[in-house]
């Protein structure tokens, strides 16, 4: 069964195709004009899109363009009401898979559609194979087992296949730059440059030449032609960091570049085409800035075709042990020390600490601990005062649990509790599952189910 979207302003046509596809066993959505069609495309991915060209409000060509940008692998078939093959050919040039001229015979249509769906299936299977081959390691150093980070990784995987602009939102230190790099590394642009510019760090008068380049002699100090970042990132990805700080004058110029996909160096008359995927990042609430007018709304919408929100670390405490361990390994290698673990009391303190500086702060805490620690494990003593000051939460199961103000990742926390208690029960019983199950007050089958669900290593007997 495939998911198909039919967009046509003509009711009879929608009904005809809907009935036809239902009979063929597909799931089908219909949209009565181009705008509705575009909205649906933003809501979900389809295996096939069939759109009329001449429609009120939003033309089929716009639907085509948006769909192609969002889902490059989804075949699009266009319909024209009259024998205007010229527009149909234009649509093919813009990436349509095929076209029909109305009126058409359903069995002719069926052949084309089956072929389109078949190809789509092939592409998908190939991608799955590749993904399995590369596995999670392709996420490089990005750690996160909380559901919220897993969702972020999923989104990164999907978004990497497209060339749409992406806006990454999140507090300072949540890993925005890392995610931007992952999008690049997972895309077919990975062999081309990934460049970063911090919009807040460059004086306004230099920003334009930094981004778009300049001609020799345009201003004092311009002693040679300079290539801008857009040109340098051609074929690759450009991260515009701290986009919220971009001066208003530059916002207009950037918008133009995003629309035209062409840049003009300062002092140059010619425009040069560039193919750059733009990822923007900010720790500001850009939507509010756009609403209140401190950031151009049109630019906001251009940048925010897809947004990825990175949750603060305090909202995904299940990631803390994993990240802490990751940084521990990193810094004990770097400092040539043999510190391999974190003392449980120290871990309790880390879990209770709100980390307003997010992952970056955790990294600093661990780096400091590794540098100072004289034992073979990280203990309370090597944690900074602000972390030690927090009382460790009660570890009594069930009692004394406190829901933090900012909320938690319930499923992750529950998994974590389960994992720890099951681990303890197995340790105590020397891995004998029947006894462990009795200690936990659950059946043997239920224990087996949980071990499987939590992907805990299943070693030993029955
Ligand atoms: N999930 C993660 N796994 C491993 N390391 C991470 C993760 N998230 C962040 N880091 C590390 O934390 C540090 C901060 O990350 P990054 O620079 O990407 O944050 P940011 O959101 O861009 O911060 P800022 O808003 O301050 O620029 C980096 O050293 C990065 O490698
Ligand atoms: Mg950053």
Identify the bound ligands: adenosine-5'-triphosphate, magnesium ion
Helix content range: 40-55%
Instruction: Tell me the strand order in the biggest sheet.
Output: 2-1-3-4-5
Number of DSSP strand runs = 16
Beta content: 5-15%
Taking all Cα atoms into account, the compactness measure Rg is: 27 Å
Structural class, judged by helices and strands? alpha/beta
Shape: flat
Uncertain regions spanning at least 5 consecutive residues:
132-138, 392-399
Query: What separation lies between the terminal Cα atoms?
Result: 41 Å
For the largest beta-sheet, the strand count, sense and barrel status come to: 5 strands, parallel
The number of helices is 19
Average pLDDT level: 87
Characterise this structure.
By secondary structure, the chain is of the alpha/beta class. It has helices at 11-23, 34-43, 60-70, 85-93, 106-134, 147-160, 176-186, 204-212, 229-232, 248-260, 286-292, 297-303, 319-334, 344-352, 358-372, 385-388, 410-428, 433-440, 444-453; strands at 3-7, 27-31, 48-52, 76-80, 98-101, 166-170, 194-198, 213-214, 226-227, 237-241, 262-263, 272-273, 277-282, 306-310, 341-342, 377-378. Strands 2-1-3-4-5 form a five-stranded parallel beta sheet, sandwiched between helices. A five-stranded parallel beta sheet has the order 7-10-13-6-14. Strands 8-9 form a two-stranded antiparallel ribbon. Strand 3, helix 3 and strand 4 (76-80) form a beta-alpha-beta unit. The protein is flat and about 80 Å long. 30% of the residues are buried. Residues 132-138 and 392-399 have low confidence and may be disordered. The structure holds adenosine-5'-triphosphate and magnesium ion. Magnesium ion binds at residues 176-177, 241.
């Amino acid at each position: 069964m495939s998911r198909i979207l039919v967009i046509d302003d003509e009711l009879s046509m929608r009904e005809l195709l809907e009935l036809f596809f239902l009979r063929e066993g597909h799931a089908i959505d219909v949209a009565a004009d181009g705008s509705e069609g575009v909205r649906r495309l933003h809501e979900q991915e389809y295996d096939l899109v069939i759109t009329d060209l001449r429609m009120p409000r939003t033309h089929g060509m716009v639907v085509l363009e948006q769909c192609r940008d969002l889902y490059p692998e989804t075949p699009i078939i266009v319909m024209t009401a009259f024998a205007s093959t010229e527009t149909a050919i234009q649509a093919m040039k813009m990436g349509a898979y095929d076209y029909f001229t109305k009126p058409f015979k359903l069995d002719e249509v069926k052949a084309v559609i089956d072929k389109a769906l078949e190809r789509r299936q092939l592409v998908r299977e190939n991608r799955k194979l590749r993904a399995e081959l590369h596995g999670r390691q392709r996420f490089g150093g990005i750690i996160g087992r909380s559901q919220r980070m897993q969702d972020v990784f999923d989104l990164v995987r999907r978004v990497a296949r497209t060339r749409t602009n992406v806006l990454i939102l999140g507090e300072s230190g949540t890993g925005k730059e890392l995610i931007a790099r992952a999008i690049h590394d997972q895309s077919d642009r990975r062999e081309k440059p990934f460049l970063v510019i911090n919009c807040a760090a460059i004086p306004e008068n230099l920003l334009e030449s930094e981004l778009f380049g300049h001609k020799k002699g345009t201003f004092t100090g311009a002693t040679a032609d300079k290539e801008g970042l857009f040109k340098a990132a051609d074929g690759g990805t450009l991260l515009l960091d701290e986009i919220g700080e971009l001066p208003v004058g530059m916002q207009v110029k950037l918008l133009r570049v995003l629309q035209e996909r062409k840049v003009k160096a300062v002092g140059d008359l010619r425009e040069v085409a560039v193919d750059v995927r733009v990822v923007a990042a900010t720790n500001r609430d850009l939507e509010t800035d756009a609403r209140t007018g401190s950031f151009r709304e049109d630019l906001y919408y251009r940048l925010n075709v897809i947004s990825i929100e990175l949750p603060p670390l305090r909202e995904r405490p299940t990631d803390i042990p994993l990240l802490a361990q990751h940084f521990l390994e990193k810094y004990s290698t770097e400092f040539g020390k043999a510190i391999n673990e974190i003392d449980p009391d120290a871990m309790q303190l880390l879990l209770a600490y709100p980390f307003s500086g997010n992952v970056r702060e955790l990294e600093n805490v661990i780096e400091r601990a590794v540098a100072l620690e004289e034992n073979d494990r990280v203990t309370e003593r090597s944690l900074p005062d602000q972390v030690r000051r927090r009382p460790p939460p009660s570890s009594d199961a069930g009692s004394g649990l406190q829901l933090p103000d900012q909320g938690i990742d319930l499923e992750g926390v529950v998994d974590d509790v389960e994992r720890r208690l099951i681990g303890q029960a197995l340790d105590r019983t020397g891995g004998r599952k029947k006894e462990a199950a009795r200690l936990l007050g659950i059946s043997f089958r239920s224990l087996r189910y949980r071990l499987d669900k939590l992907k805990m290593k299943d070693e030993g007997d029955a």
